[in-house]
Amino acid sequence: MATLTQPPATEEPTALGYVETRGLSKHFGDVRAVDGVDLCVMEGEFVVLLGPSGCGKTTLMRMIAGLEKPTAGEIYIAGERVDDDVPPRARGIAMVFQSYALYPHKTAFQNIAFPLEAAQVERSTLRRKVQWAAALFGLDRLLDRRPRQLSGGERQRVALARAVVRDPKVFLLDEPLSNLDAKLRAMARFELKQLQRQLGTTTIYVTHDQVEAMGLGDRIAVMDKGKIRQIGTPRDVYDNPADTFVATFLGSPPMNLVEQDEHTLVGFRPEHFLPREVFGEEPDLVTFRLRVREVEYLGSDRLAYGYLEEERRSDQPVIAAVPITITAPLAEGEVYEFAVRRRDLRFFDARTGLRKPAPR
Amino acid sequence: MAPGPQAQATLAPPAPAFARRTLADRESVLGTLMLAPALAYVILLVGVPFALAILLSFSSATAGSLDFTWAGLRNFAKLLGDPQFHRALGNTLRFMLVSQVLVMVLAVSAAHVLDAAFVGKRVVRSLLLLPWAAPVALASMAWVWIFDSTFSVVNWTLKVLGLLPGWLYWFGEPGLATVAIITVHVWRMFPFATVIVLAGMSVIPQDVREAAVVDGAGFFRRLFHVNLPMLLPVVTVAVVFGVVFTATDFSVVWLLTRGGPYNSTHVLATLAFQRGILGANLGEGAAVALFLLPVLLVAAVVMLRLARRAEVGT
Amino acid sequence: MSGRAAVRVAKRAALYTAAVAFTVFAVFPFYWMFLTAFKQNRDLYVGATNLQHVPWIFNDPPTLDHVRLLFFNTPYLVWVKNTALVGAAVVAITLVVAVPAGYSLARLAGRWGERLGIGIFLTYLVPPTLLFIPFARVISVLGLQNQLGALVLVYPTFTIPFCTWLMMGFFRAVPRDLEEQAMIDGYSRLAVIGKVVLPLAVPGMLTVVIFAFTLVLQEFVYALTFISQVERMTLSLGVPVALVRGDVFYWGSLMAACLITSLPIAVLYSSFIDRFIAGLTAGAVKG
Lengths: 360, 314, 287
What we know:
The complex is a heterotrimer of chains A (about 350), B (about 325) and C (about 290).
Chain A: E1 19-28, E2 31-41, E3 46-50, H1 57-65, E4 72-77, E5 80-81, E6 93-96, H2 108-118, H3 123-136, H4 152-164, E7 170-174, H5 182-199, E8 202-207, H6 210-216, E9 219-224, E10 227-232, H7 234-239, H8 244-249, E11 256-261, E12 264-268, E13 274-275, E14 285-297, E15 301-308, E16 317-323, E17 335-341, E18 346-349, E19 355-356
Parallel strand pairs in A: 3-8, 3-9, 6-7, 7-8
Antiparallel strand pairs in A: 1-2, 1-4, 4-5, 9-10, 11-12, 12-18, 13-17, 14-15, 14-17, 15-16, 18-19
Chain B: H1 4-9, H2 27-57, H3 74-80, H4 83-115, H5 121-133, H6 136-146, H7 153-160, H8 174-201, H9 206-214, H10 219-247, H11 251-257, H12 268-278, H13 282-290, H14 293-312
Helix pairs in contact in B: 2-13, 4-8, 4-10, 5-8, 6-11, 8-10, 8-11, 10-14, 12-13
Chain C: H1 2-38, H2 41-44, H3 65-73, H4 76-108, H5 110-122, H6 128-141, H7 148-154, H8 156-172, H9 176-184, H10 189-200, H11 202-218, H12 221-226, H13 235-242, E1 244-245, E2 248-249, H14 251-281
Antiparallel strand pairs in C: 1-2
Helix pairs in contact in C: 1-14, 3-14, 4-5, 4-7, 4-8, 4-11, 5-8, 8-11, 9-10, 11-14
């Protein structure tokens, strides 16, 4: 039966992504870990699955890898259906686990060579390929060491070298940077992006860290409760969130959401919410009166926490992120006039949380 | 768009680019195949003999011939009126209970000693394990020699200390023989129980213990209100195994006394051997051994409950 | 101050006294084996009524006579050979059966497997005492009386359940990530077991070898039931049963045999006891 479900590549060449899921679900008992996900990743694309823990992003990746059997739905890799009968080993994927999953009884060399041995690569080719992958990650001198003799950063690079060594169709990366300390992490992020550009390998990357997601992804799929809430370029999901979940999950501090009327929430980013005088004579401003409760000095910004003093409601908490270059006074307990450009306002349905067009 | 219908229309689909699952990928098949030999062994060589044990107890089978005559409850009826059987049943319970009480007292104290820090702790710990590790039949022979009627070092020492006016014929007198048997059981089982209790103590959170000390609880208060309740599951394991091992023990009693003097120290296991193997009356022997079943059932139920609790995650 | 110090000293003293007392109780029979094995007969057979003659020490110089007798004039070495044969065969059977079963229960059989695992472990509680009578019948039907084969057939009934349970624990301790990584790296589940899981489970398998072997050495009832011919006996049967000539015990040689047999096993066993206990208490103790 599996052989009958050939991809309709000739009929609709553009309809199918390089990695695609259709109506993909995974239920553990009553829990819907992944709930009808349609994801389409193009060849060479770097897509980040972003969401809070328990949102189903890892389960989704594990199903693509073949480590988890879907409850329902279909998975295609390179145009062929794989969910039913293709084991992980045959899917042409490479995966890097959060734990790196290095084989403790093998040296770095043997770890990197392991996938090649599976493919029964000839000995001299194997040696050449391992050396190439090791050089790519600056591991040349560490090849004789066992994992426990390597630092965290070195382990991570061995895991990556093992992933690239056999030319996979797809990289699956499950929070590969989360075990690194902050300093290494920024560097590793940069290197990872460079590498992916260089190799051009289709990549799916799971993380709960929005900075990683924004920095790495060509597109970001924001997930919550087993569903993809929005998928788009980092700029797109940040500037035009599809719903209040995406709006508040991305951005630190998150987007302010205040009630406009009983049907509508209006949202604006803290960095767009600035003292009125900053805008000068600009037209199309919406002004608010902000009672400041507390001011945090963060070096590059001042965060002003407070409430809007509006006629309708006066208990709506909001945050303003004022760049340090703006010297307007901000004192706790005082009321100031703040403003947002009208085009920076976003509107959401109060009941469903979904984005809706700006009222005229 | 589901690709199904169009795909079916294609006449000769190209060979799939991806390899399909083989037997070596199918976890359920592999799981069954890998488990099957163990299951078969257990069913054929534990389950079947177990059933056979029950069947035999209702028969008048003998060792000499292969015939199998149904005897109904005759074996059991005969045993119930047999004072030797009563004695063996009583001994089994008595040896088990007395030795287990002593074992647990010794084990909990020894575990507390080993839990404290002192010089030579590792040496003491490994020496304490010797009785459990040595082959029981050989260790029993050492005790036979220690309790020898003429050369007993125990008698000599008691004499020298002035504690023994007369003479102790250890295996010549039922009371003394009982003491000897229980001594060997305790000697053999307490190291085992100690290690189990010690393993249990090592998982009592340090802060709980320290809190109790800080609260000013004395040693016995701590023992009965903090340590013992928290040790209960692991002590249960030690007791279950201790009970099973002593109740079903054959070697110690057989080598020390052969059930003597005057068949006064038989337990179910040795009586079953005497009747079933030496007396060649398999049916009756099987019936005697079957009386061990209740002990084992209780033990199994306790183990199952513990296992279930661990599953739920206490 | 000094009162508290005194209490402290008293506590330490009590601790050491208790430690010494437990140790003496545990070790005494082994010390007795040692003394007996190397004492000259006239030092040995004095009689405990003679209070002048201290039995706790060597009164005459030690001798190797008993050991020599044991090795050259008794079937001891034959029993060693028999035990080694039975032990090797049982260990092999146990490994071949219990290792795959342990893996299956740990990883492949799921929820259903957990119950089966407990079931298999419970059969370890079914003692030889209950089974030796039906086995006597089975063995005689198979014509295996007085054959080492009888022991090779029957001993796995207690080594397999216990070792399956032990291996299950060891396999559970292998990180799942590693196995999944290997499956992605291009190996089937079966190949993963061979290339990743088994190399990591070597310490576990070593433990299984030790325990299966010591369990074989410990066993007495089945051997006594199936084997009556002296040349076919194993150590734990031959030493207590066949070193007695008529009514005469050769205590020196007997104790030498006990000592030489017990000590290596005891040392080996002690060094692995922690794993054994971890296996037994799995469930009751959450590590």
